[in-house]
Design a protein that fits this description.
- The protein is an alpha+beta fold and 221 residues long.
- The chain has one domain.
- 19% of the residues lie in helices and 34% in strands.
- The protein contains four helices and 13 strands.
- Strands 1, 4, 6, 7, 8, 9, 11 and 12 form an eight-stranded antiparallel β-sheet that branches. The chain has a three-stranded antiparallel β-sheet with strand order 10-5-13. A two-stranded antiparallel sheet has the order 2-3.
- A hairpin with a 6-residue loop joins strand 2 and strand 3.
- It is elongated, with a radius of gyration of 34 Å.
């Protein structure tokens, strides 16, 4: 009788040991990650040009934009005293992140700068549009006409410093939301370059003046 009990206990322990080696059901959960980065893309759009005055003869203006829409070329041909050219254009944020302007930089040789200062430059007004709206949210005058040095400094100051009257709406610095844009206009339909009728310096005849104005944008947080 004692022997039988002992065997039974041994069998139970054996079954328990065997059970510990059985396989378990398993399942894995997977997290798949995809990150699409945004894009900073500010472009020139919807430009137009004209001579000053509108019926000025013997001279012409040309405007074009490159394929990436980040270079706007404005060319005045056969300029003479009392005439000029103007260009109206739009700066639009076609990216996915807000963009703010951080500066204006002129790239021009010393020789061309000396010649450029004999001309007069100006922009009259900026209209600011919210994304996908057909009417301007605000507009403010930037009235100024000056030589090249004056215009370069004034344009940077005005684009980077919102007039106090509009700071409660726009903040202290202009920010373009995705889909928003700026329309650059003037009393004579845009960005103006003129040769004053008072210019009599014959050294300005037959010259080519070339310069770039870089409008610098960066992502706004």
């Amino acid at each position: 009788m004692k022997k039988t009990r002992f065997i039974a206990v041994i069998l139970i322990v054996a079954v328990m040991v065997i059970g510990a080696g059985y396989a378990y059901w398993t399942q894995d959960l997977k997290i798949t990650g995809t990150v699409n980065t945004g894009e900073l893309k500010v472009v020139f759009a919807n430009y137009s040009d004209n001579t000053i005055p509108n019926d000025a003869g013997y001279m012409s203006v040309e405007t074009s934009v490159n394929n990436d829409q980040d270079v706007l070329t404005f060319k005045i041909n056969d300029l003479y005293p009392g005439t000029g050219g103007n260009m109206a254009f739009i700066i639009k944020n076609e990216g996915t992140v807000p963009a703010k302007i951080t500066g204006v930089e002129a790239i021009i040789s010393d020789e061309d700068r000396a010649l450029a200062n004999n001309l007069r430059y100006g922009i009259h007004r900026i209209k600011y549009y919210r994304p996908f709206k057909s009417e301007p949210w605000v507009q403010f005058d930037l009235s100024n006409v000056g030589d090249f040095d004056n215009f370069e400094n004034w344009l940077e100051y005005r684009l980077m410093n919102i007039p106090p009257l509009y700071q409660n709406i726009l903040g202290e610095q202009l920010v373009l939301e995705p889909g928003g844009w700026l329309e650059i206009i003037a009393a004579e339909s845009g960005y103006n370059i003129k040769m004053p009728s008072s210019v009599t310096d014959n050294d300005l005849q037959g010259k080519t003046i070339e310069f770039d104005l870089l409008l610098k944008f960066e992502q706004n947080y």
